[in-house]
Amino acid sequence: MSGKVRACYACQRNGRLTCRRTRLGEPCLKTYPLECVNLLKRARIAFQAGRTLTEGFRLAQLEAVVRMLEEHECDFVDALGRDLHKPRFETVVSELIPVKNEAFHAISNLKKWMQPQHVEGNMSTTLDECLVVSEPLGVVFIIGAWCSPVQMCLVPLVGAIAAGNCAIISPSECTAHTAELLHRLIPFYLENECFHVIIAGTSDLPEVLELKYDHVFFTGNREEGSRIAQAAARTLTPVTLVLGGKNPCYVDQHCEIATTAQRIAWARFHNAGQNVVAPDYILCHTNVKAQLVQALKGCLMQFYGSDPRESRSYGRMVNLEIFNRTRDMLWRSGKVAVGGQVIEAEKYIAPTILTEVTGPDSVMQQDVFGPVLPVLTVMCMDEAIAFINKQEKPLCVYAYSSNSKVISRLMSETSSGSFCSNDSILQSLMVTLPFGGVGASGMGSYHGRYSFDTFSHRKSCLLRGTRFECVTYLRYPPYEDRNLSLMTWASTLSQKSQGWCQIL
Q1: How far apart are CA 171 and CA 165, in angstroms?
Q2: 458 to 9, 136, 433: CA distances (angstroms)
Q3: Which of 47, 106, 269, 348 could make an S-S bridge to 162, C-beta 3.0–4.6 Å?
Q4: pLDDT for 274-296, tens place per residue?
Q5: Would you say the pTM of this structure is higher than 0.85?
Q6: Residue 228 buriedness (CB in 10 A; 0-12 / 13-18 / 19+)
Q7: What's the rounded Cα separation, in Å, for the pair 115 and 110?
Q8: Is the distance from CB of 27 to CB of 5 less than 8 angstroms?
């Protein structure tokens, strides 16, 4: 590792951002409004020197990410326990393992991803090479989310490293212990000049973005995502946005109710419901509503016992702002079928199922980042599809049915960032599937090769010689009708033989 000091938080003096420094290993100070111009400058110098370009460098950094997670698993468990009361099981399974899976997948495939891709040429390039070369963008800015503060910082980072970029990572200030842990550990494991961690409040991010990055990757809610996109647009910086949304879950009359209830309850109440990919509400066929609600009650008893507050498997809200927002939605919507208990001092909201919910209710007008699951009823699948399509395009659509035709229709007749049948969340963790939003739920995608592509520029390259000038002279002025006729004739032949126009 280079350097015995690392940049820490910035403080505002005379309205300008300046750097404070601490020595490696010292605890981080409380977060202040930040970003240091110095960090970006160091990263740009490192990138321009070509330090991130070699396969060996990228592999070493990816291996270091894995080593960091393995050597400090207990520290991550402790930090997430402090921030979200997150059980060790959930931290390991939903935070650490997904990052390691991404890193291992990138390590195994990096050589192939980095190789130029040969593409088909045309008649005029028969003896030339047509290539697509993936080149790194430069210095990228990754803004994590509080609901999965490790996964949503480090999975994009894996893609940025694999693609050969330098990166500045901004974990959410809401999960302060996790943010400070990343801030403390990353300088020990990753190349100090290429990778930096800052902790900025959401109100500071537009100012940070004025410094001009080569790509911005943001995970969070729509309001913050809109501000990020507007700030990035001022410097023509491309963005990837993974935004929350109201993810519908259709439960058909023909399905295995017990299994359906278990999988929905796990997905909704995992991390106390603080998950951008959890089912946001159920559209249940009227014929199975009573049976489903009863099965969900049974699952909550099985998962968390008669008093979830005492369960070691159940989390807490991240802060009072999210707690109050979720509590108010709960109190103003539908009828509590199970749960509903709240304790402000502990930021505790019991896993809650609401029935008799209607479209205008508060819980249906806002994204739900908490342990509240509204159950609405529909008479048929057509009504469910129409209901879903009246809303903004969600990040995920879920469908539970034993009828393959029902699944096929829900998948093809609704639009969403991702789709999963007879389970929830898993499609968002697959390294071989792209994950991202569409419309109001975001733009761009990541995971596996798709992360590599997100943080790469796909540069088109034509490698030619100077032969056959006796043919290419046809394109030069002075323009002659005879030359135009020959070129038109050649293009016609190309269209007939290969289905696309080839101009000499």
Answers
A1: 18
A2: 35, 9, 20
A3: 106
A4: 999 999 999 999 999 999 999 99
A5: yes
A6: buried
A7: 9
A8: no
What's 95's DSSP letter? I
Using DSSP, state whether 135 is helix, strand or coil: strand
Rg, the chain, Cα only: 26
Q: How many other C-beta atoms lie within 10 A of the C-beta of residue 21?
A: 12
DSSP summary character for residue 202: T
Cα angle 193, 197, 199 (rounded to 5 degrees) comes to 150
Q: What would the two tokens of residue 174 be?
A: 């809401």
Contact 66, 72 (CB under 8 A): no
> Which tokens sit at 188?
């020990």
Which two three-digit tokens encode residue 416? 């969403």
Query: Do 130 and 119 contact (CB within 8 A), yes or no?
Result: yes
Relative to beta strand 396-400, strand 248-251 is parallel
Contact predicate 141/160, CB 8 Å: no
List all residues 6 or more positions away from 138 whose beta carbon is below 8 Å from its beta carbon.
44, 47, 165, 166, 213, 214, 215
Among the listed residues 178, 176, 149, the one whose alpha carbon sits nearest the alpha carbon of residue 76: 178
The string of pLDDT tens digits covering residues 6-23 is 333 333 323 333 333 333
Residue 163 identity (one-letter amino acid):
A
CA angle 366, 367, 371 (to 5 degrees): 115
Which residues 6+ apart lie within 8 Å of 288 measured at CB?
251, 252, 253, 255, 257
Name residue 448's amino acid: G
d(CA 162, CA 154): 12
Residue 362 pairs with which residues in a beta bridge? none
Of 354, 137, 396, which Cα lies nearest the Cα of 248?
Answer: 396
Q: For residues 142 and 152, give the distance between their C-alpha atoms in angstroms, rounded to a whole number.
A: 9
Q: How confident is the model at residue 374 (pLDDT cuts 50, 70, 90)?
A: very high
Q: 489 Cβ partners below 8 Å, 6+ apart?
A: none
Q: How far is CA 112 from CA 55, 136, 162, 432, in A?
A: 11, 15, 11, 15
Contact 392, 416 (CB under 8 A): no
Token digits for 397?
């659509």
Copy the structure tokens of residue 421: 């049948």
What is the Cα–Cα distance from 400 to 406, expressed in whole angstroms? Answer: 9
Tokens of 327: 């509590």
